[in-house]
Design brief:
Bound molecules: pyridoxal-5'-phosphate
Helix content: 40-55%
Radius of gyration: 25 Å
Number of helices: 14
Structural class: alpha/beta
Length: 491
């Protein structure tokens, strides 16, 4: 039975009061973040609140707001908090939060059509062309994150090599045995991309790293030559601009030369490092990135845009169109009217419906400007150097990799005057140490393996982190480390 009901508020003034209360709560959250724990374990009764049956009837927004404040807000992973140092996660900003609210209010579907939100996305493309000195023919598109952007780059490189007909015939019809190359330090999503693109992960050659944790160029050249000799066809080289474990930057200029010589697609995974172009100190170390055929990166990491805001920049938009445009009657383009403005973002990637990620990115870049954002990036690297110097002065700690950018890998080794820890004990101690640090709620690094040894890994991405947080980390690592060491050394 039809009724005139909609889902809009029936009492707008009351809704407005409620809306302001929700906004105020999130502004309070951002303003007083430091006073909260970075992270805390989820109590089982709270978890149980999210195992309810599908509700047939609605609940008052004010009640759900209170549930959010009580059951959800305190139990996120905490990457907005200054003490968060895990993985590679940006902190977001109140500006980005407001922009996302505006985007949600507009509810723009930015898959295509004639509308100004697409011009905002094109504005970001113009800015990225400028930042990476890419030509006017370059295309770009927002996606969830670099995992997706890397996957798309592999697909574009595959289609470029095999030709457009391969989109119809698929990889099974191909007689070519294609191989791709990246460093052993590359992010796991590159191998996943090879899997998803139909090659299988074995077609990705993971080349050993040199002492600086960069791809070893000699071994790379040797591997390509031996693959060719065996009838494989190298089609893609993926360089890393900031590896996930230690922040190493491959020699991108040398990779660009090699890719050119070998007629391979040269893709750069710059998930967080590519935006180092905003920093006068880091940009020269990225030399060669401007020669890439494509670059994947995230505004949600060093760019401080709230999640999610990944991006793929492609030197020639035609290559992007060749891989992703898929004409359909219901998506017919026109010279005028709402279906004008082709090509659309849906022609440049796998998504048709997509949100207005460009708005929070536009607000962030326009509000702060590139100088301020670059300064924030420099700060995170300065914090990493400060931590590295504190570690080097401390006999109980050992630095495990050079500090290239904003990531520090280290471990607690104890007093050398006491009984030495075995390698296994040292790994176990540091593993427990990382978990206990996270449980303090004060500082939250993550972990990785460096040359098969367990490492505490502190990555500074969040613009809110400062020297106090590094001092807190040092203090907590030593206090907890000493406690664990004492247990291991009990007679
Ligand atoms: C070097 C590198 N590549 C790719 C990724 C994946 O990016 P995303 O999590 O945005 O998919 C990351 C994530 O930290 C990364 O550090």
């Amino acid at each position: 039975m039809y009724s005139d009901d909609s889902l809009d508020p029936t009492d707008w003034p009351a809704f407005r009061v409620q809306a302001h209360a929700m906004l105020d709560d999130m502004l309070n959250y951002a303003e007083h973040l430091r006073a909260r724990p970075v992270w805390q374990p989820v109590p089982e009764p709270i978890r149980a609140h999210f195992q309810e049956k599908l509700p047939q009837h609605g609940t008052a927004l004010a009640t759900l707001h209170q549930q959010f404040m009580h059951d959800i807000l305190p139990y996120s992973i905490g990457n907005a908090h200054p003490g968060f140092m895990g993985w590679v996660q940006g902190g977001g900003t109140p500006v980005g939060m407001l922009a996302d609210m505006l985007a949600a209010g507009l509810n723009a579907n930015v898959g295509g059509r004639e509308q100004i939100p697409i011009e905002v996305e094109r504005q970001i493309l113009h800015w990225m062309r400028e930042l990476f000195t890419f030509p006017a023919s370059a295309g770009g598109v927002f996606v969830t994150g670099t995992s997706m952007a890397n996957f798309m780059a592999v697909v574009i490189a595959r289609n470029k090599f095999l030709g457009n007909q391969s989109r119809r015939t698929g990889l099974v019809a191909s007689e070519h045995r294609l191989t791709a190359y990246t460093s052993a330090g590359a992010h796991g999503c590159v191998a996943k991309a090879m899997d998803l693109a139909g090659f299988g992960t074995a077609a990705l050659r993971q080349i050993p790293m040199n002492a600086a944790f960069q791809i070893d160029l000699h071994q790379l050249a040797r591997q390509i030559a031996s693959d060719r000799a065996e009838g494989y066809e190298p089609f893609l080289i993926v360089g890393s601009a900031g590896t996930v474990d230690v922040g190493a930057i491959d020699d991108l200029a040398a990779l660009a030369d090699l890719a050119q010589q070998q007629q391979c697609w040269f893709h750069v995974d710059g998930a967080y490092g590519a935006l180092g172009m905003l920093s006068a100190q880091i940009a020269p170390r990225l030399a060669g990135i401007e020669r890439a055929a494509s670059i994947a990166f995230d505004f949600h990491k060093w760019g401080q845009v709230p999640y999610d805001a990944g991006y793929l920049l492609v030197r020639d938009i035609q290559d992007q169109l060749d891989s992703f445009s898929a004409p359909a009657n219901y998506l017919q383009r026109e010279a005028r009217g709402m279906a004008a403005g082709s090509p659309w973002p849906c022609d440049l990637g796998p998504d048709l419906s997509r949100g207005f990620r460009a708005l929070k990115t536009w607000f962030t870049i326009a509000t702060f400007g590139t100088q301020k954002l670059g300064h924030i990036i420099d700060n995170t690297c300065a914090l990493a150097q400060y931590l590295a110097s504190r570690i080097q002065e401390e006999p109980r700690l050992e630095l495990m990799a050079p500090v290239n950018l904003n990531i520090v890998c280290f471990r607690y080794t104890g007093y050398s005057s006491l009984k030495d820890l075995t390698a296994q004990q040292c790994d176990a101690l540091n593993n427990e140490l990382v978990i206990r640090l996270q449980e303090t709620g004060l500082v939250a690094p993550s972990s990785t393996l460096i040359n098969t040894q367990f490492a505490i890994r502190a990555a500074f991405v969040n613009h809110r982190t400062n020297r106090t947080d590094i001092d807190n980390l040092m203090h907590a690592v030593l206090a907890i480390g000493d406690e664990l060491f004492a247990c291991d050394n009990q007679p």
